[in-house]
Design a protein that fits this description.
With about 250 residues, the protein is α+β, with helices and mostly antiparallel strands. The chain folds into 2 domains: about 55 residues, Winged helix-like DNA-binding domain superfamily/Winged helix DNA-binding domain (Arc Repressor Mutant, subunit A, Orthogonal Bundle), CATH 1.10.10; about 180 residues, Beta-Lactamase, CATH 3.30.450. The chain has 9 helices and 8 strands. The strands form 2 sheets. It has a 6-stranded antiparallel beta sheet with strand order 5-4-3-8-7-6, with helices on both faces. The protein has a two-stranded antiparallel sheet with strand order 1-2. Helix 2 crosses helix 3.
Length: about 250
């Protein structure tokens, strides 16, 4: 039986990954007492490391699966992290790389701002696709017949026409996100129209536009900057240009 707290946590995750779907299965596989197993499972579910279905069954959580979305080869992972840090230094703000996973926008890599931990988004953090600028970009450049998660299609067409998205982050008062699509192999970054709106648009304030001709391709990821709206608003043009200039590095 696992002895230390860390060993017990690892044992529980290993048990679920190996097929344990009920608490009794976890207990049988690990030998951990019921009360301890119940507490550990509850905390792991709360952190997204494990997922509990509507029927109570356990599975590996979205956070762990998001770790698997990070490039597996060390050179790619190191190159991504180096690029994120360079973009962070150019913008002065937190930078994240997001991918779509199970109807969520999941951060797979990030470089935290030097301004403090408030702006940090950790790898593995998941948001509803409609809650962030990055999620809206992933929806706007979704493959045909994708589930748009109830998003406003007029807003998505406008985002696609503009080539980028700026949006408040739901659940984080005062936090703004700026995001652009990451093109697939052999694709160039979206140029966008070049104009930056004065007031920051909200979900109902984005002007309607037709999709950009010839842009019928899907984004592999979204590159984003996040931070306090008061700090980002004066620099939207520079942030947007920096993201677009670097999107094809991922």
């Amino acid at each position: 039986m696992a002895a230390t707290g860390i060993e017990r946590i690892v044992a529980v995750v290993d048990a679920v990954a190996a097929g344990a779907v009920r608490l009794d299965d976890v207990r049988s596989a690990t030998g951990i007492p019921y009360s301890s197993a119940h507490r550990i499972v509850g905390r792991l579910v709360a952190q997204g490391v494990l997922h509990r279905g509507a029927d109570g069954s356990l599975a590996v959580g979205l956070r762990v699966r998001a770790w698997g979305a990070v490039p597996s080869s060390a050179p790619d992972a190191h190159a991504n992290q180096r690029a994120l840090h360079e973009i962070r230094d150019l913008t002065g703000e937190s930078v994240q790389l997001y991918r779509r996973l199970d109807g969520h926008c999941v951060c797979v890599a990030s470089a935290e701002s030097r301004h403090g931990l408030r702006d940090t988004v950790l790898a593995g953090t998941a948001f509803p696709l409609t809650a962030t600028a990055a999620g809206k970009v992933l929806l706007a450049w979704s493959p045909p017949a994708s589930d748009l998660q109830g998003a406003d299609e007029r807003q998505l067409r406008a985002i696609r026409a503009d080539g980028w998205c700026v949006s408040p982050q739901e659940g984080e008062p005062g936090v703004l996100g700026v995001a652009v699509p990451v093109p697939g192999p052999g694709r160039a970054a979206v140029p966008g129209p070049g104009a930056v709106p004065g007031p920051v648009p909200g979900p109902a304030a984005v002007p309607v536009a037709d999709p950009v001709a010839g842009s019928a391709w899907s984004a592999t990821a979204a590159l984003a900057v996040s931070g306090p709206a008061t700090r980002l608003r004066p620099h939207l043009a520079r942030i947007r240009s920096t993201l677009l200039d670097n999107a094809d590095r991922f």
